[in-house]
Amino acid sequence: MFGLPLITIAVVGGAFILILLALLYWALTFQEVPA
Amino acid sequence: MIDPLAGILVAIYFIGMVAIGVWASKKINNMSDYVVAGRSLDFWVFTMLMIGSVCSGMSLLGVSGLGFKFAWPTIWEQLAVPLSIAVCIIFFGVKMHTIAKSCGYMTVQDYFAHRFESDTSLRGMSAVAGIIVSMIYLAGQYTAISIVLMWLFGLPHWLALLIGALIVTIYTVIGGLYAVAWTTLIQGLILIIGVLIMAPIVIMAAGGFTQINEAMAVVNPVNVDPWASGAGAVFTPEYIFSFILLLTLGLACAPHVINNVLCVKDVRIFKWAPLIGFGVYAVVMFLLKFAGFAGIVLVKDGIVTLPKVPNASDFIFVYGVQAALPSMFLWGIFAVIVLAAVMSTTDRLMLTIGTYFSWDIYKKILKPEAPEKQVLLVSQISVFVAAVVTLLLALNPPDMLVWLIWAGLGIMYATFAVPLLAGLYWRRATREGALASMALGLIASLGFGAVSYFKLGTLPMHFSFYAFVIAVVAMIVVSYLTSPTSEKVLDETMTGWYIRK
Fold first, then answer.
1. B86 touching A, CB under 8 A?
2. A12 in contact with B at a CB cutoff of 8 Å?
3. How many angstroms away from the CA of B287 is the closest CA of chain A?
4. Does the residue B63 lie in any domain?
5. Is residue B94 included in any domain, yes or no?
6. A27–B272 CB contact, under 8 Å
7. Which of B29-33, B137-141, B465-469 is the least confident region?
8. Where residue B220 sits, what CATH number does that domain have?
9. Is the pLDDT at B65 greater than 80, yes or no?
10. d(CA B358, CA B368)
11. Which of B21, B53, B62 is nearest to B166 (CA)?
12. Which domain range does residue B130 map to?
């Protein structure tokens, strides 16, 4: 796909999505007023 | 190649930046206004300030240049650099901002002085190290300004540098962080929109994304792999590991980036800023790297011929735009985009150097009784002197822009990352441990940097990683050999294995 080996798409795309999900988790669990 | 319309466009941009500086100068009443914008930054101004501080000449010229030289194995840069924004906010910013607001910190050195009970030695060492590495980094930025102005207007190197430096210096000196933050908001918007338009044009000129990858694979199959291997390969898996750590942690703790977290209005801004900062900047970074890949095809097909200069790869995006866009006026727009990216980092670096000298060295060490107005004046003079000194440094351009910036970044990483992380999260970290870690990290990074630069030996990982390991060992060993910090200070500085309680 895109003229790239599968491993390139898998590791780069996977890392990108993983970071996005982690930062989304941070935002959704951030307590505006600390307990 | 002087086009009147392009000249007018660049002139409007310069005048706009100075106008913001004049507007900002009216808001400056004390050091807090000048250094941390009265802790008034809201979500977008702060998020864009973080992007603008991280996004430098390296991002536009060096990133494409690196992609042009080493292709896909360098793609990790596209994740690591935007990630540094999130790492800085989450692991340093949340805690640091909360303490800073209650204790009135102006700089990170105020935190070091408090946490490690060292109002002179650690503060002084950190400030001096911060000034030196910021100057190295700043000299690299100037070179990027010069590349653009030389290309667009055919100006001599010294004149191009002088014009670019003059504009940044004027608005930074008079407007402090208010000017830096608000100009960066504009510069950030120009940069993001500009790259979203310009990079795809260059990619399309080379035949599109898929065709570029196929053409790169024909030149060398390793070009489309996620890492390189074999004799002489640079971006091997172990090198990439050290490279990611360098960019992510090094930029996160860089003086011109981390001090931004002290300027926000409220800690709630840190809720979405990591995701937005990472997401927006990652898209920009990927596009820039793909434009560098496009350059491989454009050069191979003879559409682009790079100048015969030592840092020719740094010109690839500039020459790619020139080949893809037939209009000098559009080149003027492109010049403004590059200038916006470079200036958004340059101004923050200048202000950081000025603040470190005036606040941490002059006010806190040399002349504690100095009145606030005098310290403010010293700040402004320091920013000006920093601009002049780095301008003189930049008059002899480096072999390759990105390598110079990396040297500065590697030194920042080895010097500041360990004392910051250990200070915030490890209660056993002591003043002596921090001093040893910072001093050895600085010296080791200079040593390993020299080994790497002058090819005195083969280093399988980025030079800064070895210095970082030495800094970690120094922190642990020396801290265990010395008396712990008082519990009162540890509680005041929220030290412990948590981000937020």
1. yes
2. yes
3. 14
4. yes
5. yes
6. yes
7. B137-141
8. 1.20.1730.10
9. yes
10. 11
11. B21
12. 4-400
